[in-house]
Amino acid sequence: MKRLVIATTNAGKVREIVSVLDGLEGWRVEPLPGGLPLADETGSTFVDNAVQKGEFYSRILGPEPWVAADDSGLVVDALDGRPGVFSSRYAPNDEARNRKLLGELRNVAEPNRSARFVCALALARNGGVVWTTEGSVEGTIALRREGTHGFGYDPVFLLPALGRTMAELPPEAKNRISHRGRALAMFRAHLESYGQESGRG
Ligand code: ITT
Q: 17, 83, 134, 188: which is deepest, by most CB within 10 A?
Protein backbone atom coordinates (compact mmCIF):
# COMPACT_ATOMS: atom_id res chain seq x y z
CA MET A 1 0.00 0.00 0.00
CA LYS A 2 1.27 3.48 -0.83
CA ARG A 3 0.59 6.20 1.75
CA LEU A 4 -0.93 9.52 0.69
CA VAL A 5 -0.89 12.33 3.26
CA ILE A 6 -3.50 15.05 2.71
CA ALA A 7 -1.36 18.11 3.45
CA THR A 8 -3.96 20.70 4.44
CA THR A 9 -4.92 22.28 7.75
CA ASN A 10 -8.44 23.05 6.46
CA ALA A 11 -11.00 20.53 7.80
CA GLY A 12 -13.46 21.29 4.98
CA LYS A 13 -10.87 20.43 2.36
CA VAL A 14 -9.92 17.22 4.23
CA ARG A 15 -13.55 16.02 4.24
CA GLU A 16 -13.96 16.58 0.50
CA ILE A 17 -10.59 15.11 -0.50
CA VAL A 18 -11.02 12.02 1.68
CA SER A 19 -14.54 11.44 0.36
CA VAL A 20 -13.50 11.62 -3.32
CA LEU A 21 -10.36 9.49 -2.83
CA ASP A 22 -12.21 6.92 -0.72
CA GLY A 23 -11.58 3.32 -1.79
CA LEU A 24 -8.70 4.15 -4.11
CA GLU A 25 -7.02 0.83 -4.80
CA GLY A 26 -3.42 0.53 -3.62
CA TRP A 27 -3.47 3.72 -1.53
CA ARG A 28 -3.99 4.50 2.16
CA VAL A 29 -5.14 8.10 2.64
CA GLU A 30 -4.02 9.83 5.87
CA PRO A 31 -4.47 13.29 7.42
CA LEU A 32 -1.53 15.62 8.05
CA PRO A 33 0.00 14.91 11.49
CA GLY A 34 -0.69 17.69 14.03
CA GLY A 35 1.90 20.17 15.26
CA LEU A 36 3.71 20.80 11.96
CA PRO A 37 4.75 24.32 10.92
CA LEU A 38 2.68 26.08 8.24
CA ALA A 39 3.98 26.28 4.68
CA ASP A 40 4.68 29.68 3.12
CA GLU A 41 2.23 30.75 0.42
CA THR A 42 4.06 33.45 -1.50
CA GLY A 43 3.18 32.45 -5.07
CA SER A 44 1.09 34.54 -7.43
CA THR A 45 -1.00 31.60 -8.73
CA PHE A 46 -2.91 28.75 -7.10
CA VAL A 47 -0.59 26.21 -8.74
CA ASP A 48 2.52 28.04 -7.43
CA ASN A 49 1.15 27.88 -3.88
CA ALA A 50 0.04 24.23 -4.15
CA VAL A 51 3.59 23.42 -5.32
CA GLN A 52 5.07 25.33 -2.36
CA LYS A 53 2.88 23.43 0.10
CA GLY A 54 3.61 20.09 -1.58
CA GLU A 55 7.38 20.64 -1.52
CA PHE A 56 7.31 21.89 2.07
CA TYR A 57 5.26 19.09 3.63
CA SER A 58 6.80 16.30 1.58
CA ARG A 59 10.25 17.47 2.71
CA ILE A 60 9.14 17.41 6.37
CA LEU A 61 7.42 14.01 6.05
CA GLY A 62 10.50 12.33 4.57
CA PRO A 63 11.02 10.00 1.62
CA GLU A 64 8.21 7.47 2.08
CA PRO A 65 4.74 9.02 1.96
CA TRP A 66 3.24 10.75 -1.04
CA VAL A 67 1.72 14.14 -0.31
CA ALA A 68 -1.34 15.90 -1.77
CA ALA A 69 -1.45 19.69 -1.35
CA ASP A 70 -4.40 21.96 -2.20
CA ASP A 71 -4.38 25.69 -2.87
CA SER A 72 -7.72 27.16 -3.72
CA GLY A 73 -9.84 30.27 -3.54
CA LEU A 74 -12.43 32.57 -4.96
CA VAL A 75 -11.80 34.88 -7.94
CA VAL A 76 -14.31 37.74 -8.21
CA ASP A 77 -14.35 39.65 -11.51
CA ALA A 78 -15.77 42.90 -10.04
CA LEU A 79 -12.83 42.93 -7.60
CA ASP A 80 -10.24 42.40 -10.37
CA GLY A 81 -9.72 38.81 -9.27
CA ARG A 82 -9.59 39.36 -5.53
CA PRO A 83 -9.49 37.71 -3.05
CA GLY A 84 -7.85 35.06 -5.32
CA VAL A 85 -4.71 33.55 -3.80
CA PHE A 86 -5.39 35.69 -0.71
CA SER A 87 -8.80 34.07 -0.09
CA SER A 88 -7.87 32.67 3.33
CA ARG A 89 -6.14 35.93 4.35
CA TYR A 90 -9.01 38.22 3.21
CA ALA A 91 -10.47 38.34 6.76
CA PRO A 92 -9.86 36.32 9.96
CA ASN A 93 -12.62 33.68 9.61
CA ASP A 94 -15.32 32.40 7.22
CA GLU A 95 -18.06 34.57 8.72
CA ALA A 96 -15.94 37.74 8.48
CA ARG A 97 -14.77 36.83 4.95
CA ASN A 98 -18.34 36.41 3.67
CA ARG A 99 -19.51 39.59 5.39
CA LYS A 100 -16.63 41.57 3.92
CA LEU A 101 -17.23 40.16 0.43
CA LEU A 102 -20.96 40.98 0.45
CA GLY A 103 -20.05 44.46 1.71
CA GLU A 104 -17.53 45.06 -1.07
CA LEU A 105 -20.13 43.99 -3.67
CA ARG A 106 -22.97 45.99 -2.08
CA ASN A 107 -23.34 48.29 -5.08
CA VAL A 108 -22.53 45.74 -7.79
CA ALA A 109 -25.56 44.71 -9.86
CA GLU A 110 -26.30 41.01 -10.46
CA PRO A 111 -24.98 40.82 -14.06
CA ASN A 112 -21.57 42.01 -12.81
CA ARG A 113 -21.23 39.60 -9.89
CA SER A 114 -19.50 36.79 -11.82
CA ALA A 115 -16.88 34.72 -9.97
CA ARG A 116 -15.16 31.35 -9.98
CA PHE A 117 -13.75 28.93 -7.47
CA VAL A 118 -10.34 27.53 -8.42
CA CYS A 119 -8.53 24.55 -6.88
CA ALA A 120 -4.94 23.53 -7.66
CA LEU A 121 -3.66 20.18 -6.42
CA ALA A 122 -0.02 19.10 -6.26
CA LEU A 123 1.28 15.55 -5.80
CA ALA A 124 4.67 15.54 -4.11
CA ARG A 125 7.19 13.19 -2.64
CA ASN A 126 10.45 13.68 -0.78
CA GLY A 127 10.57 17.45 -1.30
CA GLY A 128 9.67 17.43 -4.99
CA VAL A 129 6.38 17.93 -6.83
CA VAL A 130 5.74 15.27 -9.47
CA TRP A 131 2.36 16.33 -10.86
CA THR A 132 -0.18 19.15 -10.65
CA THR A 133 -3.74 19.70 -11.80
CA GLU A 134 -6.38 22.41 -11.53
CA GLY A 135 -10.17 22.60 -11.56
CA SER A 136 -12.61 25.50 -11.54
CA VAL A 137 -16.34 26.22 -11.41
CA GLU A 138 -18.13 29.35 -12.61
CA GLY A 139 -20.78 31.14 -10.56
CA THR A 140 -21.90 34.50 -9.22
CA ILE A 141 -21.76 36.12 -5.80
CA ALA A 142 -25.19 35.88 -4.18
CA LEU A 143 -26.89 38.90 -2.61
CA ARG A 144 -27.03 37.14 0.75
CA ARG A 145 -25.76 33.94 2.42
CA GLU A 146 -27.80 30.78 1.86
CA GLY A 147 -27.19 27.17 2.94
CA THR A 148 -25.32 25.36 5.67
CA HIS A 149 -23.27 22.69 3.86
CA GLY A 150 -19.64 22.99 2.83
CA PHE A 151 -17.30 25.64 4.21
CA GLY A 152 -15.63 28.96 3.43
CA TYR A 153 -17.29 31.03 0.73
CA ASP A 154 -19.85 28.31 -0.19
CA PRO A 155 -22.88 30.23 1.27
CA VAL A 156 -22.26 33.24 -1.02
CA PHE A 157 -21.32 31.32 -4.19
CA LEU A 158 -24.39 30.98 -6.39
CA LEU A 159 -24.60 28.40 -9.18
CA PRO A 160 -26.91 30.18 -11.64
CA ALA A 161 -27.95 27.02 -13.51
CA LEU A 162 -29.14 25.44 -10.24
CA GLY A 163 -30.44 28.60 -8.57
CA ARG A 164 -28.67 27.49 -5.39
CA THR A 165 -25.54 28.38 -3.51
CA MET A 166 -22.77 25.83 -3.13
CA ALA A 167 -23.70 25.61 0.58
CA GLU A 168 -27.22 24.46 -0.36
CA LEU A 169 -25.83 21.35 -2.10
CA PRO A 170 -25.24 18.13 -0.15
CA PRO A 171 -21.56 17.03 -0.12
CA GLU A 172 -21.86 14.48 -2.98
CA ALA A 173 -23.50 17.08 -5.23
CA LYS A 174 -20.80 19.65 -4.44
CA ASN A 175 -18.07 17.10 -5.20
CA ARG A 176 -19.63 16.33 -8.59
CA ILE A 177 -19.46 19.93 -9.83
CA SER A 178 -17.02 21.87 -7.68
CA HIS A 179 -13.54 23.15 -8.52
CA ARG A 180 -12.08 20.65 -6.03
CA GLY A 181 -14.29 17.81 -7.22
CA ARG A 182 -13.12 18.40 -10.80
CA ALA A 183 -9.45 18.62 -9.84
CA LEU A 184 -9.83 15.54 -7.62
CA ALA A 185 -11.38 13.46 -10.43
CA MET A 186 -8.16 13.97 -12.42
CA PHE A 187 -6.04 13.47 -9.31
CA ARG A 188 -7.79 10.19 -8.53
CA ALA A 189 -7.30 8.89 -12.07
CA HIS A 190 -3.62 9.82 -11.87
CA LEU A 191 -3.18 8.03 -8.53
CA GLU A 192 -4.95 4.96 -9.91
CA SER A 193 -2.27 4.67 -12.57
CA TYR A 194 0.49 4.91 -9.93
CA GLY A 195 -1.35 2.42 -7.71
CA GLN A 196 -1.38 -0.18 -10.47
CA GLU A 197 2.36 0.08 -11.07
CA SER A 198 4.23 -2.33 -8.87
CA GLY A 199 7.69 -1.79 -7.49
CA ARG A 200 7.55 2.01 -7.50
CA GLY A 201 7.42 2.06 -3.72
P1 ITT B 1 -4.25 24.96 3.81
O2 ITT B 1 -3.34 26.03 3.23
O3 ITT B 1 -3.70 24.33 5.04
O4 ITT B 1 -4.69 23.95 2.80
P5 ITT B 1 -6.21 27.11 3.89
O6 ITT B 1 -7.64 27.17 4.34
O7 ITT B 1 -5.31 28.23 4.36
O8 ITT B 1 -5.62 25.69 4.32
P9 ITT B 1 -5.92 28.11 1.19
O10 ITT B 1 -4.72 28.94 1.50
O11 ITT B 1 -5.93 27.33 -0.08
O12 ITT B 1 -6.20 27.03 2.34
O13 ITT B 1 -7.18 29.07 1.25
C14 ITT B 1 -8.36 28.72 0.63
C15 ITT B 1 -9.42 29.76 0.95
O16 ITT B 1 -10.45 29.67 -0.03
C17 ITT B 1 -10.08 29.54 2.29
O18 ITT B 1 -10.48 30.79 2.83
C19 ITT B 1 -11.29 28.71 1.97
O20 ITT B 1 -12.34 28.91 2.85
C21 ITT B 1 -11.63 29.18 0.55
N22 ITT B 1 -12.09 28.00 -0.20
C23 ITT B 1 -11.31 27.05 -0.80
N24 ITT B 1 -12.07 26.06 -1.29
C25 ITT B 1 -13.34 26.39 -1.00
C26 ITT B 1 -14.57 25.74 -1.21
O27 ITT B 1 -14.64 24.55 -1.77
N28 ITT B 1 -15.67 26.35 -0.76
C29 ITT B 1 -15.61 27.54 -0.15
N30 ITT B 1 -14.49 28.22 0.12
C31 ITT B 1 -13.35 27.64 -0.31
A: 17
- Long-range residue pairs from 164-173, CB within 8 A, at least 24 positions apart, any chain: 166/117, 166/139, 171/15, 171/16, 171/19, 172/19
Q: Compute the average pLDDT of residues 67-81.
A: 98
Cis peptide before 83, with omega less than 30 degrees from 0?
yes
Mutational test site, ligand 1, from 6, 8, 13, max ligand atoms within 8 Å of CB: 13
Is 77 noted as a catalytic residue in this protein? no
Domains and CATH numbers, the chain: 2-198 (3.90.950.10)
Query: Confidence class of residue 196 from pLDDT cuts 50, 70 and 90?
Result: low
Return the residue whose CA atom lies nearest to atom 19 of ligand 1.
Answer: 152
Question: Is the pTM above the cut of 0.85?
Answer: yes
Q: Could you tell which of 153, 168, 169 is best to mutate to test the pocket of ligand 1, judged by most ligand atoms within 8 Å of the CB?
A: 153
